[in-house]
């Protein structure tokens, strides 16, 4: 870098928001006896996965817990969108992943921008603090946000965690006076 300064860039994923939920499997099993519950809560793809897996109650409970955890990770709960706006899909090995639709997608997109703005403000404040004779500025560019999730169940409960991670390029520039 010109002017006697130095620049380094590091690419990393940083945890930004987290949501956790636990549900009683028998509670979801009882609710699932009502077709209206299934239609209100689960998408066609989710119900297809449930049926292909032998219609096990722990599958529904796990997906329900993931939906709740995802809404918590957004920081809103289900305020302004419904359970079907958070879809739980599975890869070929059965690992879950989350897709947001409709209003939940809008909230997710606004959170990505909001989280980036918070990082930019924090970096600016860090560069101003200290009264040291060198200036330090941090430039962070958000390239993408990943939705990480995991679910587990045992006899009575299903538990899920959802983490929103942002990929960031972190550059610190130091200019000596």
Instruction: Indicate the multimeric state.
Output: single chain
Percentage of residues in helical conformation: 25-40%
Biggest beta sheet summary: 3 strands, antiparallel
* Straight-line N-to-C gap: 15 Å
What is the CATH third-level topology name?
Ribosomal Protein L22, Chain A
The whole-number mean of residue pLDDT values reads 80
Number of helices: 5
Order of helices and strands: EHHHHEEHEE
CA gyration radius, whole angstroms: 21 Å
Which CATH architecture?
Answer: Alpha-Beta Complex
Strand order of the largest sheet: 1-5-4
CATH C-level class is Alpha Beta
Shape: globular
User: Which structural class fits the helix and strand makeup?
Assistant: alpha+beta
Q: Provide the β-strand percentage band.
A: 35-45%
Number of separate domains: 1
* E-strand count: 5
Structure characterization notes:
With 177 residues, this protein is α+β, with helices and mostly antiparallel strands. The protein has one domain: 4'-phosphopantetheinyl transferase domain (Ribosomal Protein L22, Chain A, Alpha-Beta Complex), CATH 3.90.470.20. Helix content is 38%, strand content 39%. It has 5 helices and 5 strands. It has helices at 25-31, 35-41, 44-52, 57-73, 102-128, and strands spanning 6-24, 86-90, 96-100, 134-153, 157-176. A 3-stranded antiparallel β-sheet has the order 1-5-4. A hairpin with a 5-residue loop joins strand 2 (86-90) and strand 3. Helix 1 crosses helix 4 (57-73). The longest helix has 27 residues, at 102-128. The protein starts with 5 loop residues before the first strand and ends with a strand. The model is unreliable at 1-7 and 122-142 (pLDDT under 50).
